[in-house]
Amino acid sequence: MTKKIGLYKDRKQWRVRWFGRYDPGTGKTKRYSKLFERKVDAEKFQERVKADFGQGVERDPSNETLKSYAERWLNSKIQIEGLRPATVLLYKMTFERLYGFFGPDRPLRNIDRNEAKDFLAGVKPAGKRKKPLSDWSKHRVLRHCKTLFSEVVKDGIISVNPFTDIKVRCGLPSEWYYLKPEQFHKLLDVTPTLREKVLYCLAYTGGLRESEALSLYWTSIDFDKGRVCIANRPPTKNYPPFYVKDTDARVIPLPKFTLDLLTQLQLESPEGVPFVLVDKQGCQRISDKWKKHREQGLEWFNRGLANNVIRDFHRRVKQAGIETAGKNLTVHTLRKCCIQNWANSLPMNVVKELAGHSDIETTNRFYSTVDEEHLKAAAKIGDELLTTDLKLTFSAVSEENQKV
């Protein structure tokens, strides 16, 4: 097969011609060409084709469309990586936006950087929602597009990802309230049920997400080693599956305080209930809901295992007399407090694993911030150093004066 990419004059036009793969069916090598009115345009195309082939793009032009590739790629990703339904839904929402802008039958090789920028500039909320899309949602759409088209590059369909160097503004994360240990004890003091106390402790001392804590089975807790394992759990006839968010399974050490509460709760737990934080009535409700999902062929999401969790938490915060100065304080904030405590003492790569983040950039972004306590500690270090140096200086001067 010749690698030549030729430029020829064809009457009043200019033709760029190149060879593709050998076709064993015809016994010939496929040939491709494209006509241009101007020589300068033909030369530019010729150079681009040379650059594409040099970067691994297939010599036979692909007519793969946006929708056919996106659906096939997502199905493969689901099978290989076991994406949770919530993640699949978000990808599908991004793909629908892409189809709406480019058209589902648009060839992938015809999508360029300028169109990619126009797409992101005009991205809107899905469905009938009127509220503008947040910066974080736009960032997620961009991340999905970069991931999809990087695979298109790897498959040799295009040479450059049109979304590679495009950025969208990411606003500052909302301020959340750091709950100090003494305030957390006040919160527990006004919390009436043991189950609620265990939920708050799993978040505040183990960094569990709300859905992870509510989905937790007793079999996931190793009381001898003082650890809890967060991992995917397959569905059964009576109970739904559990999907880990973002990353693989992780093992988290729990302090004695939380383990003691868990031990007490286990002694009170009814027979036949696998969930740590769900009572017998709630367990039956989950079983009925799962049965309905299976009958209707609906996807199961981690959320929805318990009702009124947020409402009850806000009530406990108010009863404890905790003033947040307008900052966000929820059950999820307790998880953030735990991760911040880890970040104050442990290497970030360890914090990433304990927190269950898929990317260490997430850990660094949210838990490397400098707060008021850090500023006070820095000032204290400076004061101590200067005080020590001054004492040594004055002591040395006094000794010299005594000699004189």
Rounded to the nearest angstrom, the distance between the terminal CA atoms is 97 Å
Low-confidence stretches: none
On the 0 to 100 scale, the average pLDDT is 85
User: What is the overall silhouette?
Assistant: elongated
Our count of helices gives 15
Kindly describe this structure:
The termini are far apart. This protein has four domains: 5-54; 66-154, Orthogonal Bundle (DNA polymerase, domain 1), CATH 1.10.150; 181-367, hpI Integrase, Chain A; 378-404. With 404 residues, the chain is mainly alpha-helical. The strands form two sheets. It has a three-stranded antiparallel sheet with strand order 1-2-3, with helices on one face. It has a three-stranded antiparallel sheet with strand order 4-5-6. The protein has helices at residues 39-54, 66-81, 85-102, 113-121, 135-154, 181-190, 194-206, 210-214, 256-268, 280-296, 309-319, 331-343, 348-355, 360-367, 372-403, and strands at residues 5-10, 13-23, 28-36, 221-222, 227-230, 250-253.
